[in-house]
Write a structure and sequence with these properties.
The chain is of the alpha/beta class. The protein is 40% helix and 24% strand. It is built from 11 helices and 13 strands. A 6-stranded mixed beta sheet has the order 10-9-8-13-11-12, sandwiched between helices. 47% of the residues are buried.
Length: 284
C-alpha cells in the first residue's frame, strides 16, 4: 500500500495520524537561539510564552532536502510514497521535497497549496485512496485535482501576531485593538491573506464567521469537517462545533490543535473550519 507523508503544518491530531497511517515530518522552529521540532518538543504555549517575554515571533525554517531523502529512503521498498507539503508560495519545503524525490522511483510530491489542516485534510484523502488500492501517481492526480476545493479559513482574536509578522501596520493594529476588530484569514491560491472583518467579543465573532463561511462555501462535503484552533478556550471550540452542526451535519467533525505555522502567524485563540467544498466521493 502507498505510504502517505506530510509536514507538520498538517495540524492533525495523534489519533487521526495513527488512524490514517500518516507520517509527519516536523518543521524546525527557532525560539531565540534554541531549535525545536514542531509538534515534537514544541507546543503552542511555548510559542506564546516566548513571544510574550521577547516581543518577537519564532523563526520557522523549511524542511531540507536531506531530511526528506532520509524518510524517502526508509520507504524505498514500499509500493509507493505520496508526500504532501505546505504551499510552495509559503515555504521552500515543497521544492526541497521535489529535489529529494528525484532519486526515488516510487515517490510523488504534492504541493497542497494550503497550510494547517488544509494540508491535513488532503493527507487524509490521500490515505483513503491508498487504502482503496490507488497507486502513488493516481493519488497525486486525484489530490491535486481537488485541492482548489479545500475551504480553509480562520477567525483571529487579535492582530498582534499579524503585526509582528508584517501583515498589518501599526494604525491597523491600534484601530483593531480599540474597536475589537477580529479579522478572518483565508488561504487562497496558495497564499494566506485577510478575508473579512468582524467586530465584538469572540463568541459573537465565531458565530458570524461560521455563518459566513458556510454561505460563501456552500457545498461542504459531509465526509469530514475539521475545527482547528491555537489553544482556544473550550467554550469557543464547543461554540464553533455547535454552529457547524446547526448548519451542516457532517459524518465526522474533528477538533485539532494548530502547530507552529498557524500559531506563529495568527496568535492564540485563532480558530478555523476546514472542509472540502465539493460533493466528490473520497473512495474513488
Amino acid at each position: 500500500m502507498v505510504k502517505v507523508i506530510c509536514d507538520s503544518s498538517c495540524d492533525l491530531s495523534k489519533e487521526l495520524l495513527e488512524e490514517y497511517n500518516i507520517e509527519v515530518m516536523p518543521f524546525p522552529v527557532m525560539l531565540g537561539e534554541k531549535e525545536y521540532r514542531d509538534g515534537v518538543d514544541l507546543t503552542p504555549e511555548m510559542i506564546f510564552d516566548f513571544v510574550e517575554k521577547t516581543g518577537v515571533l519564532p523563526k520557522t525554517a523549511a524542511i531540507n532536502e536531506f531530511e526528506f531523502a532520509k524518510v524517502f529512503e526508509k520507504y524505498k521498498q514500499e509500493d509507493g510514497v505520496v508526500c504532501l507539503t505546505i504551499s510552495s508560495k509559503i515555504s521552500t519545503t515543497y521544492a526541497n521535497a521535489v529535489k529529494a524525490a528525484q532519486d526515488f522511483d516510487n515517490v510523488q510530491v504534492i504541493d497542497s497549496y494550503s497550510l494547517s489542516s488544509g494540508v491535513g485534510i488532503q493527507a487524509i484523502y490521500a490515505s483513503i485512496l491508498a487504502q482503496n488500492g490507488f497507486n502513488e501517481k493516481e493519488i497525486k492526480e486525484k489530490v491535486e485535482a481537488r485541492r482548489d476545493n479545500v475551504q480553509i479559513s480562520f477567525a483571529t482574536y487579535k492582530l498582534n501576531y499579524l503585526y509582528k509578522g508584517g501583515r498589518c501596520n501599526s494604525l491597523q493594529l491600534l484601530g483593531a485593538n480599540v474597536l475589537k476588530i477580529r479579522p478572518s484569514i483565508i488561504v487562497k491560491d496558495g497564499r494566506m491573506g485577510m478575508h473579512k472583518k468582524y467586530v465584538g467579543n469572540m463568541n459573537k465573532v465565531c458565530c458570524k464567521y461560521v455563518e459566513d463561511t458556510f454561505k460563501e462555501f456552500d457545498k461542504p462535503n459531509k465526509r469530514l469537517v475539521l475545527v482547528t484552533h491555537s489553544s482556544a478556550t473550550k467554550e469557543i471550540v464547543d461554540l464553533v462545533k455547535d454552529e457547524v452542526n446547526k448548519r451542516f451535519m457532517a459524518d465526522r467533525l474533528c477538533e485539532t490543535v494548530a502547530g507552529a505555522t498557524v500559531t506563529s502567524h495568527c496568535g492564540e485563540n485563532t480558530i478555523g473550519v476546514i472542509y472540502y467544498n465539493d460533493d466528490l466521493d473520497w473512495d474513488k
